[in-house]
Here is the input.
Amino acid sequence: MKKQLKRIGLLQLLALGYTSQVLAGGVSLPDIQQNLPRPALPDPRPILQVPAETPAPEKKQKKSSLKIVVKEFKFSGNKQFSDEVLAAQLAHLTGHEIGMRELNEAVGTVRNYYRQRGYMLTQVYLPTQDLQKTTEAEAVVELSILEGTLGEVKAEAGQGLDQDYFQSLSEYGLNKGDVLNERNLVRNIMVMNGLPGIQVTSQLNPGEAVGSSDVAVAVEPRTPRVTGFVSANTYGNRYTNHETLGFGVAVNNLRGRGDQLAVVGKTSRDEGQRSISGLYFTPVGSAGTIMNLAYSYVDYKLGGDFKQFDASGDAHYFYGSLEHPLLRETKKGVAFKVGGNYKILDDDVDAFSINNRRDISSLELGLVGDWINDIGSVAYQWSFVVTGGNVSYKDGAAKANDKNQLDTQGSFIKWNWTSSRTQVFENGVNWIVRADYQGAGNNLDIAERFGIGAINRWRQFSEIPSQADQGWMVGTDVRRTFVSSAADVTPYIQSVTPFAFYDAGRGKLNHDPIGSSNYVRSNMVGIGTDIQFPGQWILTTTYTQQKRDLDGAASNTEYQLWGQLRKNF
Here is the structure.
């Protein structure tokens, strides 16, 4: 009897493995969004348009013979930095004989000190003072500083957008009379530009008060009201059929706030696996906090080698999160994330009258961030999330079987690190390097495990996936797009993008294994092309070789040709 229970338990794990291709690690919000056509990035331009300084016309003057020994520089109008801090920047000019050239250098040094720290409108000048009468014992030079201040902030929202809401986002944390700093201005603009439905530009204009500037913020829709896609591909697996039809629809600016409602679905041949996912993404409040709400439903029935067991199942997945920006600048950002998951999993093996129903609830806390270099050619993204939760079995036999084997029920904890580096070269080559890791504090339910060589946020297909309690995956992609010209002999092809990739990973199947065979290794290499046709049709073909080494089993290598035809709208 015990042997039969173990056999049934193994079958349950195998059956769950294919459900977990959708649910492993949770339905990631980017996974839903990445299937939707996104707008092309606009040409690079400053996030904040600052009026260029117009130098005063040069006047022909007699060469100054002024020579003084500066005992001290004093400052007026400075509030952001103390006299001592500013004087330290001019230490090389203090105590030496200098002329007008060095005095102008002092003005530029102090001005640059301010601007390098984000005070881009600060002006520094020499006020009227009789330097001719100074002596070496009393040569004190005054520099006046006009720290640019904020006047009015005015947002202009385009058609269909919420004018009052974007006014509140633009003004967040700013008060009339505040000293203007790139950080406090750019933060709000960058937060708004992170919303999928809008794009934002801004302009500084002279204000009414001396030294003040008004901020004009223009908010326009980034995309059409409705975008989406339909697709046909071979991205399914051998047990639920490779041939798959998919669709996705996004409604942008549903509330006129840069929000997005998205629905993505797919079904494989003979309904071997069906899924539908929905996501609502919206800002809440005026501080730039983002709320994500998601739901996903999956059902499946196994064929192939498992058809004789009449195995099937379904799953419901609920997710909600809040993401609040802690730091948001032009080139870098960090946000705090808190979220909750609730999963209802039901796997049936009719051949053994087994019903494996369990609920999983969890809470996640983490940080997400990004950084881009000065010229915009290299971008980094990362996240660290800790998840704690509970697995509750609803069927007595399944609960007893789990207790006698891996004992995944009850509380669990895991932590995930994701990171990527994207570089665009001058010749158009796009290179991505990435690394993901999951650790665990105990044995995990298969729906919480980490995919080794499995479908993930990078790959939509896998022939021999594995799930592990803890492990790592690294990979790299290289691609380049060649755009067709009118002189080409292929007028029906707009662009061709060849690409190549390599993935490698290793995982510990169970945190606390039953036996000694407990590790899996996977390597996958692939080459392919994306061909874009008029009318937003895209044909993708990929050839892969995937090798899996599982402790206690022979090495397995699969060669597969994958294809997808997709129409964006």
